[in-house]
Design a protein that fits this description.
By secondary structure, the protein is α+β, with helices and mostly antiparallel strands. It has 18 helices and 31 strands. Strands 1-8-9-10-11-18-17-16-15 form a 9-stranded antiparallel sheet, covered by helices on one side. A 5-stranded antiparallel sheet has the order 2-3-4-7-12. Strand 26 and strand 27 (684-690) form a beta hairpin. The model is unreliable at 169-180 (pLDDT under 50).
Amino acid sequence: MKENMEMKFHGPIEKWDEAIPLGNGKIGCLIWGKPESLRFSLDRPDIWDRSIPCHTQDDDFTYHHLVKLAHEKNTDKIREIFDAPYQYPVPTKLPAGKLLFKVERETKISHTLHLDTAEACITIGEGIHKTKIRTMCHAVTGTGMIRTEADASVLSVSLENPKFGTGEKAKGTYDPEQRTISQGSLEQLQYPFPQTGEKEVGEAKIVWFTQQVDQDFTYGIVLGERMWKKGTDYFYRILSSKDGEHWLEEGIQFIEDQLEQGYEYWRNSHVEWWKNYWSKSDISIPDQWMQKQWYVTNYLFASCSRKGGYPMSLQGVWTADDGNLPPWKGDYHNDLNTQLSYTHFLKADHLEEGEAFIDFLWDLKDEAALFAKKFYGTEGICLPGVMTIDGKPLGGWPMYSLSPVQQIWLCKSFDDYYRYTANQDFLENRAWIYFKETAKCITALLVEVDGKYYLPVSSSPEIHDDETASWVTPNSNYDLALLRYLYQTLIDYSKRLGKKDDIYYEEILRKLPDFAIDDRNVLMISPNEILQESHRHLSNAMPICPLHQITYEKEEEKKIIDAVILDYERLGTGLWVGFSFAWMAHLYAIAENGEGAAEQLRIFWDNFCSTNGFHLNGDYKKRGYTTFHYRPFTLEANMFAADGLQEMLMQMRDGKLKLFPAIPDRWKHDKIGFSGFRGEGGIQVTAKMENNKLIYLEIICKEEQQILLKYTKSDGYTNVTLKKGKNIVFPQ
């Protein structure tokens, strides 16, 4: 276990996306570089240039106009109006700054990241001249902490601001030929010169800089240092004008107070937080390497998502430190990325950390109402598919970045949370309202043709990229799956709450078409198009996963799932990215194919993740899995892959609990288990299997309820009545 909770790095780390990651949801730190230039790249998720996205306020930036141009097949005009805003450098996520450590005369360096305590230990040099550095992003106070054990004469530290341009702020220009992942150098952002300051307080020294971004937003970093008997303690805070009127003065005072008590004093509460976090759930599988990936993912999750803070965007709390703007602006992509980032936390029972996303969506409800009215011309709520931290549309390929059904996928986060907690207050006062307001917008967009409802335009992410052909015949199976899910869920909620709205939603659901399925039983892209080549988005499989509208419970639906999987196998992985393998692992797990699920996860973790665990999207090691050899860092596939492993161990849908449904043969004759997994109805499950036999099953239940339980060797489900409290279901 201890080995699985350590990540060791030998030699200097030369790339920022291979750095040691630290974080507490409020700030992040990446440690990398050579001993003579060891970087602590610092970040905070709400440090953004929040400029209004160019042209998104124009009169022609509307859904009605987009539909008109799509019907006219005027792709050039669509790009000019709806994709162009994304090509401007702002708005964008910004890096915060860095600490630069310089150790003279030493070249040897090694690093250890302790996942259990979220503390990094760095050793530079050997013998009596060895320099030791311990560091963490404090889990409770939000402060970064560093303790060095070194001769002050060989170690120096400096605080550096990002190298933005200076002077009048530039908006950049749009080049239709330059449609790239990264929006270029930080220097194109013209901000005023940073302001610096320093003071001495007794034995402590404090330095800082502040960087004005615009008239409404300034941020800064405060660094304090104080000697201890073997070296120096450093404490830093990343602050902003959004922290309050006296944000800088209060930040400096906070650092003064923490320095007074020192590193070890504050370490105790940090370690206690992480101890509690790790106690929530656990797994034990024969494949120790794969087990470690699950720990790494849970570590990354807690490092960049905490209740009370912003949820993880594409890169969480780890913005690129390479002199450039982050990949895809470090934004919120709601056509897959944000949703997949928040898949695994429920089963892993990390509720509070996952609530950051739900709270964020709820807080943006007013912004979603404004966008629904201005862009779609409807009542209700709808957030952009690609957006800023404030919920503003960023543009981009509009068939996805401005597709209304992405809002329904966001709704699923509320539904999943309710089903895994059985919180009736949450159902009535959040989930029901969020779904109902979403339906107001979506329903107003539907067009009735021959007694059936269709969207005026339809797409399937990201089939045909942004070409004219990307506007597929309505409704794509992707769009249809989300539409059906919206109204099915509202019918269920209405009945649970006694709202009597179900008749209205049933009438809409009745008028939605059936899924398009070809003569091979394969889910099609749209009513007249099949998937004809490998593609990164398995979007035609949306009804199977993640929506589970087609399940492995009925023979006719089994045939569809098996046929879809076979079709993906036929087409191959040449145009996949990292999250595609995680998605495929889910499909194999649903089909109870443990060999296939495990292999997809092995490919993902071994070939699409950096040495520090970061998902780098492409087959950057060039091992022949895909033709994408780039390495832009995003987080969603990490979480989705962890959820895939959890699905191999336990599945629960509609009150049906399956234990070890997708275990590889090589695991079955060993010991395997999990503890603390959360299931529907708020139950918590611990199960152990040995030599392919269930040897222990415990279910903790808050309220008496009935479930259907499927044992490993069972041919069917057993009806089990759970009583309030702990239920030892096996051995009986």
